[in-house]
Amino acid sequence: MFKFIFLFFISIQTIFSLDVPSLSGRIIDQTNTLSKQTISELKNTLKLHEKKTSNQIVVLIISSLEGEILEDYSHKIATTWRLGQKNKNNGVLLLISKNDHKLRIEVGSGLEGALTDQIASRIIQKEIITEFKKNNFDQGIKNGIEKIILTIKNEY
Fold first, then answer.
1. What total number of domains does the chain contain?
2. Sheet strands side by side (includes 56-62)
3. Is residue 3 part of a domain?
4. Residue 40's pLDDT is what?
5. Half-sphere exposure in the Cβ direction for 98 (13 Å, CA)
6. 112-148 residue pLDDT tens
7. Which DSSP category does 147 fall into?
8. Residue 141, in any domain of the structure
9. Whose CA is closest to 81, among 29, 35, 128, 25?
10. How many CB atoms sit inside 10 A of residue 75's CB?
11. 3-class secondary structure, 29
């Protein structure tokens, strides 16, 4: 009986879990929050950074986590997408759940020494949320990406 109940709950959780979107670029804005100019600028910045360093940074903006736990969902995305280089695990995901007012910087193990949880939290609080509170999402994300890159280069 216990086995049946356990399997039932796992099945229900799987059915209602939020799907991982396909990795279609460096900036995935499912909410149409960012201006076309900002998307273009960020794509160029991230492409150049990846070309110079091999570090891969992706921004995903979704409308809602639909009940998912932020940390679990960001990890699921980064793992599914296999961000960063295979041998280096040097990927970073900036996940923004707009309607939930939640965001997270998920860091691959290859960059955890430079981009620690404490620094990621500081970037979120001081660089991104400050602008989000002013309804300036473009600038908040630009600031966040700039500081993530500077941190990885040990210049922040």
1. 1
2. 27-29, 56-62, 91-97, 102-107
3. no
4. 98
5. 18
6. 999 999 999 999 999 999 999 999 999 999 999 999 9
7. H
8. yes
9. 25
10. 15
11. strand
Q: Give the 3-state secondary structure of residue 6.
A: helix
Supply φ then ψ for residue 92, to 5 degrees.
-135, 135
Q: Which two tokens stand for residue 13?
A: 């959780």
Q: For residue 83, which amino acid is it? A: L
Q: What is the residue range of 85's domain?
A: 22-152
Paired tokens of 78: 């980064």
Model confidence pLDDT, tens digit, residues 88-116: 999 999 999 999 999 999 999 999 999 99
Structure tokens at 21: 């979107």
d(CA 116, CA 120): 6
Q: Is residue 80 part of a domain?
A: yes
Tell me if residue 88 falls in helix, strand or coil: coil
Q: What is the C-alpha separation between 87 and 25, in angstroms, rounded?
A: 21
